[in-house]
Amino acid sequence: MNxxxxxxxxxxxxxxxxGLALGVGHATGSGPxxxxxxxxxxxxxxxxxxxxxxxxxxxxxxxRGYTLxxxxxxxxxxxxxDLRFRILGTDGKPVTAYQQQHEKELHLxxxxxxxxxxxxxxxxxxxxGTWSAPTAVPAAGEYRVFADFTxxxxxxGLTLxxxxxxxxxxxxxxxxxxxxxxxxxxxxxxxxxxxTPGRSGxxxxxxxxxxxxxxxxxxxxxxxxxxxxxxxxxxxxxxxxPDTTAPGPEIGFTTTAPSAGSYRLFLDFKHQDTVRTAAFTxxxxxxxxxxxxxxxxxxxxxx
Length: 303
Fold this sequence. Notes:
Blueprint: E1 62-63, E2 66-70, E3 74-76, E4 81-88, E5 106-112, E6 119-121, E7 124-125, E8 130-135, E9 141-149, E10 158-167, E11 181-184, E12 187-192, E13 201-209, E14 212-213, E15 226-231, E16 236-240, E17 250-255, E18 262-271, E19 274-283, E20 300-301
Parallel strand pairs: 3-10, 6-20
Antiparallel strand pairs: 1-2, 2-4, 4-8, 5-6, 5-9, 7-8, 9-10, 11-12, 12-13, 13-14, 13-17, 15-16, 15-18, 18-19
């Protein structure tokens, strides 16, 4: 598990519904290339007609008859904890059967409302329908837990969200500043393209190390890359996958941001058998904050 990704902010609140489509890519070094994902998990990929009328993923604890139930939403910052939760079905009973999406039956994201850290976990499922994931939140504050899954037999996936409260010494921080380039564990990741409200556009991510392009990125969870986008202010969640199959160094994906505002983009990429996370703060007018002067640590992952 990597050190939590250092980069910040979120505020509480709920904003108007919007749609966002994002896709990223991971490259592979050897073996057959994974198929590009044209649609991601619940609330991702191409939006059906009328999608603008629906809330994006993660804003609701209950949707389409399914409910995310966290066993104990109160934790202590810095202390290891076994995060346990269940997905309750339309009959009120725990769901025990899921469809596999990108090599896992459920993807779990944990992020604070100030976006100072990011964890992509893969919990285990017991026979009674209880999911569990060992983790530790690094700082006090309010967190959002996102469960990204597709129940067995369901036509499409969904993402549910619930609050997690971490006791400790709370030190609120502003939205992290980044430019077009960030560095994580010696890797340089450069973002190209802009987010524009109401218009689809192309974004690219280029990975290099020691001044040389990385052309042998490895597949991670059956895809060339994973991008989680969280909207500042309400934690609206989207998680989609590559629209290219190239082995790098440039990874392309398509995005639409119908609402104005700031977004935090977390890119997972795998190289030399290690998953790392690069994060960017962008606004829908295409501007970015100044380039940071310190290296950003990687996000947490569970394999």
